[in-house]
Amino acid sequence: MDAGLAALARGLAARLRALPGVQEAVPGYATVTLFYDPAAVDYHALGAMVTPMLTPEMAPSGSAVEHVIPVRYDGPDLQDVAQRTGITVARVIELHHSRVYTVYLIGFVPGFAYLGELDPALELPRRDQPRTRVPAGSVAIAGRQTGIYPLQTAGGWHLIGHTSTPMFDPLAHPPATLAAGDRVRFVPSSE
Amino acid sequence: MIEISTAPPFATVQDLGRFGHRASGVPVSGAMDPDSMRLANSLVGNPPDAAVIEWALGGGSLIFRRTLQYVVTGAVRAPRPMTARVGDTVALAPPIHFFGRFIYVAVEGGIDVPMVLGSRSTYLPGAFGGYKGRILRAGDEIPVGASGASAPTPWTPPAFESDAIRVIFGPNRAAFTDAHREQLLATEYKVAQASDRMGYRLDGDPLTGGEWGTRLSEPVCPGAIQITAEGHPIVLMADGPTVGGYPVIGVVHSADLGRFAQRLPNEVVRFVEATLAP
To answer: What is the pTM of this model?
Structure first.
């Protein structure tokens, strides 16, 4: 995970969207994935247009919308996380909301944002047994990442809290509340 | 309007899919077998992307509240456009296993549910699109669009020389060796019971001699063949996630994905390499 590299990927994705035949350009941690119409442009012709754009001088993406998301820290795994990391629950909560996170990638389910980087003191592998049902709005951690489940789904991350801020609305434009490159701050809330 | 009189266990409204929202994590969805869907639309004079009912796992019946042409394609013996009159009840046989697992019901004018993010396709995990974001049930009244003027012009689905499914290797080339790619092509797989609109697991000898832990997630697409840590392939399908953490050894050629989607649990799958024309 490298914030600089991810920013380059976002900047590149924005420029690649303008190429003929390109339908979507999706930035990730260290990748840009292009979806194109093979009837409009073939793989090799598109490759010949993309290659010269991969220069060390690529401008990173400039946009950085900041979101403040209230979290009620009462997740079912909070005690377990404290126990396994050897710190108090209060410290887990403090470490989680004392950073500004970057959205690296949206996916897994609509609107799910992979946020990094989590404080190394909170780093844990995913749960051995994923839950079959994680409630929508659950705030969770795994590895050096944190995220919010936008809908009820299966999930293997550790649930430390809950937010009532909606993360996805299919009738909104864009439908996801967060976008790659956005910044996120969590604030403790009793809501 | 048509009414679902008896619903099969699994029927949803689908079109050719929802594009342009992958950056928000929205999967493409759409018909699992787009060729059969296009054929169905062509036989009733609809544009290729008109919404249809994708129907699986059983039979059922429809009541027509308007006189309409309709046709059933996919896992049927021979598609035949018919006219249903106002008040007619039309019984639909279950998909014929010999031909596949999905049938497609197209009606003249197309299924006219509201567009969500540019598509009428149902995405069940998100409970949006299609008819109220869910599978169809008895009693549902499905709106049908105005009949177009265009005469039916049967579309010819592509012909295939073999039963093998073409795969284009990549994008995670470096995670695999040529020996792994050869193993994939040499293995006779069977579609696993765990196969649905999200993805099809394949049973067969696992790929060996590699370490495939999870990696940083990156975008994936329908047809992507992920390899699990144990060496087993999972082919992502229409409702599959937009990003994944397993390495992707190759992608099923989009022209073969509908044919692959029609394979039932325990049916044999063999892959053959396709290359991108220079």
So the answer is: 0.93
Query: Where are chain B's structural domains?
Result: 2-142, 165-273
| A30 within a domain of the structure (yes/no) | yes
Between residues B191 and A1, the one the model is more confident about: B191
Q: Is residue A58 part of a domain?
A: no
Enumerate the residues of chain A whose CB falls inside 8 A of the CB of residue B216.
1, 28-30
Where in A45-99 does DSSP place strands (E)? Answer: 66-71
What's the number of domains chain A is made of?
2
Nearest-CB residue to B25 (from A1, A30, A106): A106
Same domain, yes or no, for A7 and A49?
Answer: yes
Both A44 and A95 in one domain: the answer is no
**Tokens 């293997």 belong to which residue?**
A156
User: For residue B22, what is the nearest residue in chain A, using CA coordinates?
Assistant: A26
Greatest Cα pair distance in chain A: 58
Across the interface, of A30, A43, A110, the residue whose CB is closest to B276 is A43
Q: Which of B171, B229, B12 is nearest to B102 (CA)?
A: B12
| Cβ within 8 Å, pair A175-B117 | yes
Kindly determine whether residue B19 and residue A24, on different chains, have CB atoms separated by under 8 Å.
Answer: yes
Fold of B165-273: Cyclophilin (2.40.100)
Q: How far is it, in rounded angstroms, from Cα A104 to Cα A122?
A: 19
Picking from A55-59, B39-43, B172-176, B263-267, which range would have the lowest pLDDT averaged per residue?
Answer: A55-59
